[in-house]
Automatic annotation (TrEMBL), chain A:
<keyword id="KW-0067">ATP-binding</keyword>
<dbReference type="Pfam" id="PF00005">
    <property type="entry name" value="ABC_tran"/>
</dbReference>
<dbReference type="InterPro" id="IPR027417">
    <property type="entry name" value="P-loop_NTPase"/>
</dbReference>
<comment type="function">
    <text>Probably part of an ABC transporter complex. Responsible for energy coupling to the transport system.</text>
</comment>
<dbReference type="GO" id="GO:0005524">
    <property type="term" value="F:ATP binding"/>
</dbReference>
<protein>
    <recommendedName>
        <fullName>ABC transporter ATP-binding protein</fullName>
    </recommendedName>
</protein>
<dbReference type="GO" id="GO:0042626">
    <property type="term" value="F:ATPase-coupled transmembrane transporter activity"/>
</dbReference>
<dbReference type="InterPro" id="IPR015856">
    <property type="entry name" value="ABC_transpr_CbiO/EcfA_su"/>
</dbReference>
<dbReference type="InterPro" id="IPR017871">
    <property type="entry name" value="ABC_transporter-like_CS"/>
</dbReference>
TrEMBL record, chain B:
<feature type="transmembrane region" description="Helical">
    <location>
        <begin position="61"/>
        <end position="81"/>
    </location>
</feature>
<dbReference type="InterPro" id="IPR012809">
    <property type="entry name" value="ECF_CbiQ"/>
</dbReference>
<dbReference type="InterPro" id="IPR003339">
    <property type="entry name" value="ABC/ECF_trnsptr_transmembrane"/>
</dbReference>
<keyword id="KW-0812">Transmembrane</keyword>
<dbReference type="GO" id="GO:0043190">
    <property type="term" value="C:ATP-binding cassette (ABC) transporter complex"/>
</dbReference>
<feature type="transmembrane region" description="Helical">
    <location>
        <begin position="238"/>
        <end position="256"/>
    </location>
</feature>
<keyword id="KW-0472">Membrane</keyword>
<feature type="transmembrane region" description="Helical">
    <location>
        <begin position="133"/>
        <end position="157"/>
    </location>
</feature>
<feature type="transmembrane region" description="Helical">
    <location>
        <begin position="20"/>
        <end position="49"/>
    </location>
</feature>
C-alpha cells in the first residue's frame, strides 16, 4: 500500500529533517507515528502526497510512485491533513471547503452534497456548513480539516496530530471514528491514549530516523524506552 | 520576496550609508539639466561600476529595471510638448503633431534619468534588508509615524504573501483526479474558487495582522518604533559617503560647466 525507501529531506534553509526513512505499510494497517517535537513527523507526512519532494529516496502509494506527473492521482489516494488547520482550509465557508475536493474530482453535485454531510457528521460538525472556517475555534477547525479529506474518500489517510486541541469528548469521538474507518492510516500524534485505542502498530522517529517500528502493545509496555524516546 | 533578492556580498556595508548614497545619487540625477550627456554617461558608469564591484549582477538589475518603462512612455510626450525647432511631424486623428529638437532632448534626458534612478533603487533594494532601509530613513529624521506606516505595510505584505502561499498549497493538496473523471470541472468553476480565495485571503491576512498587533501590544509595544540603538559609522562608511559625495558633486559640476 505504502512503501518508502531511503527517504531523506532537508529544508531549503539546510535543516536536515529526514535521514534515510524506510517504511512499508500494508493495506488496511493503522500506524501511529510518534516522536518528540522536531523529530520529523510532519515532514514525513508532507511527503506522502507530494507537498514536499524528497531530496533522495522514493515513495510509492498503491503501486503509483509519488512524482510530479502523478500528483493528481496521488492526491486522490492520499488524504493529507496538515497539522495546522489554517494550512488546510482556504474557502469562505465550511461547506465550500469540504466540497472542494469532491467537486474538483468531478463528482455530481448530489453526490458531493451527500459526501459533505457524511464527512461533517463523522467529525461532529453538522450545522456549521455556512460558517467561515477562519472564524471557528481551533478544535472546530481541526475537525473541519479532517472532514475536507474524508469527503474525498482516499485510500490512505495521513493525519498530522488530529487530536491536538480537541476536548475530551471530541477525542473520544475521533478515536471511535479512526477505529471504524476502513482506510490505511499513518497518523502522527503525541496522544498515547489515542495510540493505544486505535493503532496496533507504532513507529517512533528521532532526528529524522526510524528508531522503533513495532507492535504498539510492546512499545507502550516498555516504560524505559518510552522515557528514552521522550514519549512520556 | 525581497529576502530572495538580498545579495550577501554587501551585507557588511552599513544600510544607512547605502540608503544615503542611493538617495544622493538620485537627487544628483534630478539636478542634471537636459542634454547633459557627458554627466549622464559618467553617472551610469559610476553606478555600473559599483554594481559590478559589489557583485550584484548588472544583468539582473537591468532585467528588473524594465519596470520603469511606463515612465519612458510618459517622457515621450515631452518630445511633442516642448517648444523648439520642429524635427518631424505626424498626424493622429487629423491632428498634426510636431516633435521638436528641444523636446526630444528633454524626453531622452528624462528617460535616461529615470532608468538610472530605478537601477540605483534596485541596487539598494537588492543589497539592503527592509529594516535597514527603515533605520536609514529614521536616521534621516523622517517622521517616525511615516516609518511606522512603511514598516507595517511591509509586514502586512509578507503576511499576505505567506497566507496566499499556504492557501494555494491547501488547494493543490486537494486537487485530485480519479480515473474516468475529468478533473478540475471547468475554467469558470476554477476561476470562481480562485476569486473566493482572494476574498478570504484578505480577511485572513487582515485578521492575522490584527492578532500580531495585539501580541505586540501585549508585550508592551506603545506605538513608538522599536529600533535598537545604532552602531556608530565606521571609517570605511565615512570613506564611502565622502567618495559618493565627491562623485555626485563632480557630476553636477561637469553638467554645468
Ligand atoms: N519550513 C521549515 N524550514 C526549515 N526547517 C523546518 C521547517 N519545518 C520544520 N523544520 C525543521 O525540520 C525538523 C522536523 O520538523 P517537523 O515539523 O517535521 O517535526 P515534527 O516531528 O512534526 O514536530 P512536532 O511534534 O512539533 O509537530 C525540525 O528540526 C524543524 O525545526
Ligand atoms: Mg509536526
Amino acid at each position: 500500500m505504502l512503501t518508502i525507501t531511503n527517504l531523506s529531506y532537508a529544508y531549503p534553509d539546510g535543516t536536515p529533517a529526514l535521514r534515510g526513512i524506510d517504511l512499508v505499510v500494508a493495506a488496511g494497517e493503522k500506524v501511529a507515528l510518534l516522536g518528540v517535537n522536531g523529530a520529523g513527523k510532519s515532514t514525513l507526512l508532507l511527503h506522502l502526497n507530494g507537498t514536499l519532494r524528497p531530496a533522495s529516496g522514493a515513495i510509492v502509494v498503491d503501486g503509483l510512485p509519488v512524482t510530479a506527473q502523478n500528483l493528481r492521482q496521488i492526491r486522490a489516494r492520499v488524504g493529507l491533513v496538515f497539522q495546522d488547520p489554517d494550512d488546510q482550509l482556504f474557502s469562505p465557508t465550511v461547506f465550500d471547503d469540504v466540497a472542494f475536493g469532491p467537486l474538483y474530482m468531478g463528482l455530481a453535485p448530489a453526490e458531493v452534497d451527500q459526501r459533505v454531510q457524511q464527512a461533517l457528521q463523522a467529525v461532529g460538525m453538522t450545522g456549521y456548513e455556512q460558517r467561515p472556517p477562519h472564524r471557528l475555534s481551533l478544535g472546530q477547525r481541526k475537525r473541519v480539516a479532517l472532514a475536507t479529506v474524508l469527503a474525498m474518500q482516499p485510500s490512505l489517510l495521513a493525519l498530522d496530530e488530529p487530536s491536538a486541541g480537541l476536548d475530551p469528548r471530541a477525542r473520544r469521538e475521533l478515536s471511535e471514528l479512526l477505529r471504524t474507518l476502513p482506510q490505511t492510516m499513518l497518523v502522527s500524534t503525541h496522544d498515547l491514549a489515542l495510540v493505544a485505542d486505535v493503532f496496533p502498530r507504532s513507529i517512533v522517529l528521532a532526528e529524522g530516523r526510524v528508531v522503533a517500528d513495532e507492535a504498539t502493545s510492546s512499545l507502550l509496555a516498555d516504560h524505559d524506552r518510552l522515557w528514552q524516546y521522550g514519549l512520556i | 520576496m525581497a529576502d530572495t533578492a538580498t545579495a550577501e556580498p554587501t551585507a557588511a556595508d552599513d544600510g544607512r550609508v547605502k540608503t544615503w548614497l542611493a538617495l544622493g545619487f538620485i537627487f544628483t540625477l534630478a539636478w542634471l539639466p537636459a542634454g547633459a550627456w557627458d554627466a549622464l554617461i559618467m553617472a551610469a558608469l559610476a553606478l555600473w561600476f559599483v554594481i559590478g564591484w559589489k557583485r550584484i549582477g548588472l544583468w539582473m538589475i537591468w532585467r528588473r529595471s524594465l519596470i520603469a518603462w511606463p515612465f519612458a512612455l510618459a517622457a515621450l510626450t515631452l518630445a511633442i510638448a516642448r517648444p523648439g525647432a520642429p524635427v518631424f511631424q505626424f498626424t493622429i486623428g487629423g491632428q498634426a503633431i510636431t516633435a521638436t529638437d528641444a523636446g526630444m532632448v528633454a524626453a531622452a534626458t528624462v528617460m535616461a534619468k529615470s532608468w538610472l534612478s530605478v537601477q540605483a533603487m534596485l541596487t539598494l533594494i537588492a543589497t539592503t534588508h527592509f529594516s535597514e532601509l527603515l533605520t536609514a530613513l529614521a536616521a534621516l529624521r523622517l517622521p517616525p509615524v511615516l516609518i511606522l506606516i512603511l514598516g507595517m505595510a511591509y509586514r502586512y505584505l509578507f503576511i499576505l504573501q505567506e497566507e496566499a502561499l499556504r492557501m494555494l498549497r491547501a488547494r493543490d493538496s486537494r486537487s485530485a483526479s480519479i480515473p474516468g473523471q475529468p478533473a478540475g470541472r471547468n475554467l469558470f468553476w476554477r476561476a470562481t474558487i480562485t476569486g473566493r480565495m482572494v476574498g478570504t485571503l484578505f480577511i485572513r491576512a487582515y485578521e492575522r495582522s490584527e492578532r500580531i498587533y495585539a501580541a505586540m501590544l501585549a508585550r508592551g509595544y506603545d506605538g513608538r518604533p522599536v529600533t535598537a540603538t545604532q552602531p556608530p559609522l565606521r571609517p570605511t562608511d565615512y570613506f564611502a559617503l565622502i567618495g559618493g559625495g565627491i562623485v555626485c558633486v563632480s557630476l553636477i559640476v561637469i553638467a554645468y560647466i
